[in-house]
């Protein structure tokens, strides 16, 4: 008879999401570094940060600027964000 080890898939090496620290300021800093190098996804994320005021001062003008840069590179989420803003 073959026996198989019992595996509990509920146990994870990674902490639950609620245990992870969210640092919007640090995230915005990294998004800005990538956005200034032309990364379209980072431009869209930074636009969202400015739109919501998460990690940066809220600024509709800055949000529009980064959404426009991202949208020009074909990011559909940025195009949608421009359409509804």
Key features of this structure:
Serine Threonine Protein Phosphatase 5, Tetratricopeptide repeat; 4 helices; 0% strand
In quaternary terms, these chains amount to single chain
Helix content: 55-70%
CATH fold-level topology:
Serine Threonine Protein Phosphatase 5, Tetratricopeptide repeat
Stretches with pLDDT under 50, minimum 5 residues: none
The overall number of domains is 1
Cα gyration radius (Å): 19 Å
Number of strands: 0
CATH structural architecture: Alpha Horseshoe
> How would you sum up the major sheet?
none
The general outline is: extended
Euclidean distance between termini CA atoms:
65 Å
Question: For the residues shown, what is the average pLDDT?
Answer: 86
SS element count, helices: 4
CATH superfamily: Tetratricopeptide repeat domain
Order of helices and strands: HHHH
- Binned strand content: under 5%
What is the CATH C level class, in words? Mainly Alpha
Structural class: mainly alpha
């Amino acid at each position: 008879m073959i026996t198989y080890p019992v595996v509990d898939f509920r146990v994870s090496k990674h902490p639950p999401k609620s245990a992870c620290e969210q640092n919007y300021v640090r995230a915005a800093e990294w998004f800005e570094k990538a956005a200034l190098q032309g990364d379209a996804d980072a431009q869209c994320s930074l636009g969202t940060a400015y739109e919501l005021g998460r990690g940066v001062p809220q600024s509709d003008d800055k949000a529009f600027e980064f959404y426009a840069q991202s949208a020009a590179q074909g990011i559909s989420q940025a195009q949608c964000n421009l359409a509804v803003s």
